[in-house]
Amino acid sequence: MNFPIEVVREKFPALSLTDxxxxxxxxxNPAGTQVPQAVADAVSxxxxxxxxxxxxxxxxxxxxxxxxxxxRAAMADFLGAASPQEIVIGANMTTLTYHMSRTLGRTMKxxxxxxxxxxxxxxxxxxxxxxxxxxxxxxxxxxxxxQSWQIEEAALAALLTERTRLVALNYASNLxxxxxxxxxxxxxxxxxxxxxxxxAVQFAPHGLIDVGDLGCDFLxxxxxxxxxxxxxxxxxxxxxxDALKPYKCRCSSNALPERFELGTPQIExxxxxxxAVDYFAGLGTAAGEGGSRRAKIARAFEISIAYENQLTxxxxxxxxxxxxxxxxxxxxxxxVGERVPTVSFTVDGIEPETIVRxxxxxxxxxxxxxxxxxxxxxxxxxxxxxxxxxxxxxxxNTAAEIDETLESVHRVIAMLRQERS
Length: 421
Prior knowledge:
Elements (H helix, E strand, L loop, with lengths): L4 H6 L7 E2 L2 E2 L1 E2 L10 H13 L9 H21 L7 E4 L2 H13 L7 E5 L8 H10 L2 E5 L10 H7 L4 E7 L11 H10 L3 E5 L11 H4 L3 E5 L9 E5 L1 H4 L25 H20 L6 H28 L4 E3 L14 E6 L4 H10 L2 E2 L1 E3 L4 H7 L7 E5 L6 H22 L1
Parallel strand pairs: 3-13, 5-6, 5-7, 7-8, 8-9
Antiparallel strand pairs: 1-2, 4-10, 9-10, 11-12, 12-15, 14-15
Helix pairs in contact: 2-10, 3-10, 4-5, 10-11, 11-14, 12-14
């Protein structure tokens, strides 16, 4: 079926906003997406009608607990988890990763080894680096291949030793857009006896996650990257997290997953989280899927991936026509399925911020900089203080918006080159 782009766009109020009569083009999506009306309504409804803390016997506290339970169940469906007990919900990916790293640190000792990649967002690097510093662990660095733009299995295998306790990987890069073969990488790490912690923040808006199939031990994502509120989610394999002793208040619950969720939960945001998952399910229903919520989510990704890939290739083809412009990531049309629709580039002699500032004036929303892909820019030799221009597509973007963005990129670069000549 054709992707129902107009139906999708009608669900997002922000897409119809203007500034002094000028339309907005949202291509800042890797840093955070817009939300459907249903998500905002769910947050508001919770605050207005079920605003209470948990653990009481009156109506609002009982309803608040149901919201929390529903959010865990929704994320279990979204990630393919075996149980809502495996779903830990918290402030954001980075905070949760710091928390989980300290908890896992209780199982490690000086001389143990952890493997970090040169491809990860800093949120899946700094927590482990600082843990290694605290505990005198050995850090081994895993570069990405600059031809495939992915982490190669042989490179990981070469780093593993009998002392490796954890491998931190990313599913997809927030700079290059490349998707790693997480299932194969996880299998190699697990065979060596290491735990695997996967950052799926950039992949979650663009592909179906099946934690059972991946075989990893932990997977983290952020709701605000897939049309939800600002919060993070960690999935932990039940037998692994059940054996862990997190840092927590002495009198707080020891149950799963509560013992990993510090303080009062963000109940109103959990309501929005369920609504975001149900948005995907609704898209699957519109595409003809009548099965379970998980089946509907899978169908939603099936049609959105095909749609996003077309827009991505249009963008890559248009950028590739500009002399002196380098795309840092996969550009081969035959491999478009091996990347998410995040495209980053640099232009000879022009700082990325200069391009982005001019395009922002035209109400085309983009980012420049390293975007917390600190290790990537250093491996590629890109000045960290400059970084890249990053264009990130979501499935509510249109072909017309990509055409207008490409026209702007061509014009802005030509103008800046003329000013420098």
